[in-house]
Design brief:
CATH architecture: 4-Layer Sandwich
Mean pLDDT: 83
Number of strands: 11
Oligomer: single chain
Shape: globular
Number of helices: 4
Strand content: 35-45%
Amino acid sequence: MQFKIIGEKGGRELYALGTHLLIELKDCNPEILKDLEKVRSALFSAAKKAKATIIDFSFREFQPFGISGIVVIAESHLTIHTWPEYHYAAVDIFTCGDHIKSEVAASYIIKQLESKNPSIIEIKRGLLSHQNEKLPHKVSLGSASFTEEYHTISR
């Protein structure tokens, strides 16, 4: 499997708020790619195997074929778009913090979709520290945490 990391400097890791895996799945089993339940199950199980906290989900099947879906996790998201006619799927796994095992989720999805030609690009997101110091994943804004404030505003 090809694996390229964007967000390294001189061979050393840079501290980031999140990791974004862009996964190209070529030569997949087209019968799986057009099966809504199998695609949904692959993403759900991948999130669970990565130790993510599932918050919500949405999947849509298109005619004559193809599926798009998202599993929203507390740590960000997993998304998929399938093109069974090309034996291809595009998957994104974006995770924040450092306790989620995104590579476990990626490997699981690759196996479930039976991709014979996968590749992964890893992008470090939120490279904000000028001194390359690890930043806390969650911080407080005034008296309320950012998460509490966001849910208050968005609801």
